[in-house]
Amino acid sequence: MSNVINVLTADGASSVLEILTSPLLIIIYIAVVILLILLVVISVMINERRFNQSVKRILSQAKKTEKLDQLEREEKAGKNKNRFELLKKIDAEGVNKRSDFTQSCTLHEICDEFRLFAANRLNLYYDISDIRQFVAGLAVSRILILQGMSGTGKTSLAYAFGEFIDNSSVVIPVQPMWKERTDLLGYYNEFTRRFNETLLLEKMYEAGEREDMYITIMDELNIARVEYYFAEFLSLLEIPNPEARYLEVVSDHWETDPAKLKNGRIRLPENMWFVGTANNDDSTFSISDKVYDRAMVLNLDRKSEPFQTSSSKKMPLTAKKFDELARKAVEDYSVTQESLARLDQLDKYLIEKFQITFGNRIMRQILRYIPIFIACGGTEPEALDDILTKKVLRKLETQNTAYLRSESEELCNYIEGLFGENAMPRCTEYIRRIARNI
């Protein structure tokens, strides 16, 4: 039995040895080894690629960090530069403050002297009623719109007043593509690291240092949409406290910014008026109620005839003095109770018949305009006729054409019955004209 087991064991070992040394198994061994070697090589290559990518990421991050540091250094260096050249020049040189202002005068004298000055010095002739409307308009609102046919002297009137008060008006030619505040004030150029300052921004900054009246002429006001590019000005001028009227010029603050630019904002000067000239033709936009309601309006539809003049003089005025004269006029020539009652009746009639009303803002303007117009040398009926035409009846232009034509004569008769026959010629002529034209 033992011999049998030994024989079997010897045979088994011999068979195993034969298998282990067979050519097939050797080939398998070699293939496995090669496969293992390939796996090792691939693993090394993958790790090397990952390593290279990591190195690249680290280097790239380092470059970005260095670039950011450089940009930060450049920004810090840039903020040490002066980005407002014109405004800083005003800070450095100061402004010429005059002391020879006219101390004793009346609104009546201002109107008479201005008319003579325009004719005598500039060969510009205006009807005294237009002059009174212009001066009274300035006294009621910081925004005045001069409208009418081309060539009637709209721009010249505003320019002449600047010469009369001995502080030349600033003429801003409005551009058709204007849409926002930056078109008026300028913008910051990221490439040059300079602010492109406009003449208006410069004059606003200068006006903040002086007492003079400043007249800014917005030439061809409605060649672009006024309610777009002038929107922030309109809103700020509604704020009762002038000290709170600030416009954003830039969104940040640099240590080197001009002294009176507070956190990138400039105060809208209380002594600056905006006088816009408007043409009503196919090349212009209609002016919205938002603008009309906030502004005073003067219609210049015809040229005045030349007249003989006597000597004339300039009348340098401070904004404070001009506003004081306006306040005194409101105190001295308050609207009569009879006229107030008539205005109330007219308001109710217009609401019932045409669904239009005076509104609180327009009523405040009426209560200021009439006394000031009287102080300028006019009469209460003249003032009523003028302001009702421009501020209230103007709203009739939006009425249904057929309805307005059918009701226009009745409205004219109602006004004449309320205020007196032929007492309101501007109102009745205006109603009949728009009834014909719309």
Order of helices and strands: HHHHHEHEHEEHEHHEEEHEHHHHHH
CATH H-level superfamily title of the largest domain: P-loop containing nucleotide triphosphate hydrolases
Question: Care to count the β-strands?
Answer: 9
Fraction of residues in β-strands:
5-15%
By DSSP (H or I, 4+ residues per run), the number of helices equals: 17
* Silhouette: elongated
Report on the biggest sheet: 5 strands, parallel
Low-confidence stretches: 4-8
In the CATH hierarchy, the architecture of the largest domain is: 3-Layer(aba) Sandwich
Lateral strand order in the biggest sheet? 2-5-8-1-9
CATH class of the largest domain: Alpha Beta
Helical residues, percent: 55-70%
Radius of gyration: 41 Å
The CATH topology annotation of the largest domain reads as Rossmann fold
Give the overall average pLDDT: 89
List the SSEs and their pairings.
Blueprint: H1 2-20, H2 23-79, H3 85-93, H4 107-122, H5 128-140, E1 143-147, H6 154-164, E2 170-173, H7 182-185, E3 186-189, E4 194-197, H8 199-207, E5 214-219, H9 226-229, H10 231-236, E6 246-248, E7 265-267, E8 272-278, H11 289-294, E9 296-299, H12 319-332, H13 337-354, H14 360-375, H15 380-392, H16 401-419, H17 425-437
Parallel strand pairs: 1-8, 1-9, 2-5, 5-8
Antiparallel strand pairs: 3-4, 6-7
